[in-house]
Design goal:
single chain; mainly alpha; Rhopdopsin 7-helix transmembrane proteins; 71% helix; three-stranded mixed beta sheet; 11 helices
């Protein structure tokens, strides 16, 4: 084990010091990671190749899968390696990279989920004007905004976090470079810049979530007026999982950042961190494809070796 008092990096405490539990944790994380990898790759492939999956909904879903795949890859492989090697050491540079990508991709998820809620709002509340409202160029600019705003938030958060002086023992009671744990290592008020950035991002995330909730209020009021029970069921089955994913991801993440940090985290603290770092990327492919006949049909075609035509229906120019 690296000497904690002289190391230049940080020590991730992980889940347990017991070797058997470390191996179990590594195996569980490996299974979840492989499932997330497979699920998100399948969605990326079929939404790229299938001509019937070229509407804005699937365009945004593809980028959500890219974000999910990247997001889970930021923390989980490192945690698996640390558990297998029985060494929680992470270098200063690795920690900086992890914080940047974690923040950038987390914010990207918030923005893409907001865009997806607006897409459903336009599709259900204004079906006759849908293709005008969700013009291909607007969708592409929305995705550019997702990646650009994520990069900016990542740069701001990383810069302010690592501008502080770490004067305490560099032990992080998590399985990744957790920002609240990093801020706790400061011995002065130089962490206030990071707190300010965190507050700004939290406010913006709340605005995004509020706009999504308002979109769904309009959606549900419109859906309830649909005379067909089948139509109502289809609309609810599309929108409710999305609202659940957004609420679950944002609430657990906000709880983690707002609750006081502890020198001896409980199992509950570690579970909360898993809920917003590991579970959403693994569950999103299941939630978004389980009741979607178009995706299931494209997946069957992929399994049976069927050919996808490359003709684009919506994004044709």
């Amino acid at each position: 084990m690296t000497n904690v008092t002289t190391m230049s990096g940080f020590l991730l405490m992980g889940f347990s010091d017991i070797r058997e539990l470390q191996i179990l944790h590594a195996l569980l994380f490996l299974v979840i990671y492989l499932l997330a990898l497979a699920g998100n790759l399948i969605i990326i492939i079929i939404t790229t190749l299938d001509q019937h999956l070229q509407s804005p909904m699937y365009y945004f879903l593809k980028h959500l899968s890219i974000l999910d795949l990247s997001f889970i890859s930021v923390t989980v492989p490192q945690s698996i390696d640390n558990s297998l090697m029985d060494n929680g050491y992470i270098s200063h540079g690795q920690c900086i990279v992890q914080v940047f990508f974690f923040t950038a991709l987390a914010w990207g998820e918030v923005v893409i989920l907001t865009a997806m809620s607006y897409d459903r709002y336009a599709a259900i509340c204004f079906p006759l004007h849908y293709e005008v409202i969700m013009d291909p160029s607007k969708c592409k600019w929305a995705v550019i905004a997702v990646w650009l705003s994520g990069s900016i938030s990542g740069i701001l958060y990383t810069t302010t976090t690592f501008s502080i002086t770490f004067c305490k023992v560099k032990i992080i009671h998590q399985f990744f470079c957790n920002i609240p744990q990093l801020l706790k290592l400061s011995c002065s008020n130089d962490y206030l810049g990071a707190i300010g950035v965190a507050a700004f991002i939290a406010v913006m995330a709340f605005i995004c979530f509020t706009s999504s909730v308002l979109s769904y209020i309009h959606i549900f009021s419109t859906v309830l007026r649909i005379p067909s029970a089948e139509g109502r069921s289809k609309a609810f089955s599309t929108c409710l999982p999305h609202l659940f994913v957004f609420s679950f991801f944002l609430s657990t993440g906000m709880f983690e950042f707002l609750k006081p940090t502890s020198d001896s985290p409980t199992v509950f603290d570690l579970m909360i961190s898993i809920f917003y770092t590991v579970m959403p990327p693994a569950l999103n492919p299941i939630i978004y494809s389980l009741r979607n006949e178009a995706i299931k049909g494209a997946f069957r075609k992929l399994l049976l070796g069927g050919e996808f035509t490359r003709k684009k229906i919506f994004f044709s120019h």
